[in-house]
Backbone:
């Protein structure tokens, strides 16, 4: 985790790209997406964030899909889902606005 001056904390990016979940459970399961990047069970939360200002993002899958692409860089504009743009920018070295 990186903190710059008085800005909000920046998560660790364990992988620069999405993590695909095949045949996710529909409606009955609440998933907890790791927002800090420190979980050893990526992309899901394992409570490694305890003691930080990070919290997992809880979500459910509401309709039948074959797979979902969850963000692993932790900087997506569509959390918990990969936006397909942010990790490409990170890989190319492009500067991101984290505001």
Residues:
């Amino acid at each position: 985790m990186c903190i710059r001056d008085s800005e909000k904390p920046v998560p660790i990016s364990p992988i620069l790209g999405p993590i695909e979940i095949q045949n996710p459970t529909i409606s009955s399961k609440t998933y907890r997406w790791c927002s800090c990047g420190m979980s050893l069970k990526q992309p899901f939360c394992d409570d490694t964030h305890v003691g930080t200002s990070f919290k997992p993002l809880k979500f459910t899958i509401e309709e039948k899909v074959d797979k979902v692409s969850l963000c692993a860089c932790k900087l997506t504009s569509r959390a918990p889902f990969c936006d397909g743009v942010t990790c490409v920018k990170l890989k190319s070295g492009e500067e991101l606005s984290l505001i």
Observations:
- Residues 1-5 have pLDDT under 50 and may be disordered.
- The first strand starts at residue 18 and ends at 22.
- Strands lie at 18-22, 31-33, 57-59, 67-71.
- The helical segments are 86-92.
